[in-house]
Specification:
This protein is α/β, with parallel strands linked by helices and about 325 residues long. The protein folds into 2 domains: about 150 residues, Alpha-Beta Complex (Quinone Oxidoreductase, Chain A, domain 1); about 150 residues, 3-Layer(aba) Sandwich (Rossmann fold). It contains 9 helices and 15 strands. The strands form 3 sheets. Strands 3, 4, 5, 6, 7, 14 and 15 form a 7-stranded mixed sheet that branches. A 6-stranded parallel sheet has the order 10-9-8-11-12-13, with helices on both faces. Strand 8, helix 3 and strand 9 form a beta-alpha-beta unit. The chain is globular and about 65 Å long. The chain starts with a strand and ends with a strand.
Amino acid sequence: MKSKNLKVILTSRPVGEATSECFSIIEEDLTALSPGEVRIANESLSVDAAIRTMLRGEGFHMQMGIGDTIFAGGVGRIVESTVDGWDVGRAVRGPLGAQSFAALSTEHLELIEESNLPLSVNLGILGGSTGVTAWIGVKKVARPNPGDLFVVSAAAGAVGSIAGQIAQKEGAKVIGIAGGKRKISHLLNDLKFEAAIDYKSEDVRAKLAELAPNGVNGFFDNVGGDILDAVLENLALRSRVTICGAVSQYNDMDHVQGPSSYLKLAERQSAMEGFAYFHYPEFIKPAEEELRQWLHEGSIKLAEEVIDGIEKFPEALAFMFSGGNLGKLLVKVR
């Protein structure tokens, strides 16, 4: 086993975009484990939009201090252990951080059931911030009915693409909003969505009015800003808007652009509700079980975009906010 740990730390708080100048890559010696800890050789790390909100110093999500290792959920294998039952070689999932090795108490970790699937599915389809979020958001918050026109923003991203597929399983007709020809092709040809709108080259308001002349019945929003307003302008009567995220706003949380068309909710007798998956702890296990079943059946899929090297983690975060990734964005450590 290597004796050095390579990790990404926060060196300054971003103003606007989180550029590479806000981070440093440092190497340090591995220290001895404390009782109750295991050491994990990290394999894959999840790059999530919420990480940007953790760099501010204050906010809803946990915050990182200057000099802290950048937070990241991850999967890896135990290479050293002080705990019975947590044997070397076992796969684990947890808040491993943007580093090559993590030393953590087992109370913060989950042992992963071995299968013929790659470990990364535990960050994607089976991950709390991805598949479980989509499952809870669609089935317990949005609750689409068969035949509904159901819109998903950031539909080619990790949460959006799974949310759209789950809405299809509920009998809804899904319209995905994404940016660029590659993503639109993925939504139409791979995920078989009813329709897709390229926000980079099309007028979202006008296209929605064309695709849904009687309005849309549900909206699963991951973007906020202008996209949220465009859908609010096209609501059907008694529709439901579900706020999962607002990636367009995370670079300037002190000046969040609220929906200027919110009065459409009153005009259309509609409702808007936000959520996070951990607000529904009683549904996490059922979500994981059904997602795992669909995964083994092959009835749900999630593309992966993988960037190699822990030193590329800041680059991966910037890539996500440029709208570059298709599906789940991961950093492969080893």
